[in-house]
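User: Sequence recovery, please. Input:
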């Protein structure tokens, strides 16, 4: 049994020595591979990093220039908006002054709003229509005086036609409701 123990110890020592030798070789091979990778990365870095940094710097400069142009355009647009608001306010002040002088306009009422020409719902009457209306109007007509904006005739009426019914319905009667 002692021989068996001696042989087992020798085998274990040989295995341990082989393991240490293999580990050293692997370590040296890994160190050599790492050095090769570092050398390759250094040579590639010289060829690729500088152009990439140049492209990035160029793109950043172009972006800064575009931002400056955009800021300038935004400032010009803001100035134009302010100028337009000032012109609109000046025009509205003129209309309000005219409304204060005109006895036909109740400028002190709660729902008073100046009738500024150019708005969507209150377009001024074209001169051709004003002249045509004044020549055909009678003295008893209650339409607004020429030169004042007017609303489209029938603008306050219910749009469309009433639903045809048998006399039991009207504007809001549904066609599919069957009454017996």
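Assistant: Recovered sequence (180 residues):
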């Amino acid at each position: 049994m002692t021989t068996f123990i001696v042989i087992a110890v020798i085998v274990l020592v040989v295995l341990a020595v082989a393991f240490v030798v293999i580990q050293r070789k692997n370590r040296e091979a890994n160190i050599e591979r790492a050095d090769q990778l570092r050398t390759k990365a250094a040579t590639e870095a010289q060829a690729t990093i500088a152009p990439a940094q140049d492209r990035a710097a160029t793109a950043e400069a172009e972006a800064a220039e575009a931002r400056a142009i955009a800021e300038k355009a935004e400032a010009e647009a803001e100035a134009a908006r302010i100028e337009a608001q000032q012109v609109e306010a000046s025009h509205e002040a003129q209309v309000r002054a005219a409304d204060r002088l005109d006895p036909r306009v109740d400028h002190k009422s709660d729902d008073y709003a100046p009738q500024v020409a150019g708005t969507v719902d209150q377009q001024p009457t074209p001169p051709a229509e004003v002249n045509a209306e004044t020549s055909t109007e009678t003295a008893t007509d209650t339409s607004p005086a020429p030169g004042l904006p007017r609303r489209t005739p029938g603008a306050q009426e219910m749009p469309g036609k009433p639903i045809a019914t048998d006399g039991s319905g009207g504007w809001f009667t549904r066609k599919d409701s069957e009454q017996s």
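Residues 2-101 form the longest helix (100 residues).
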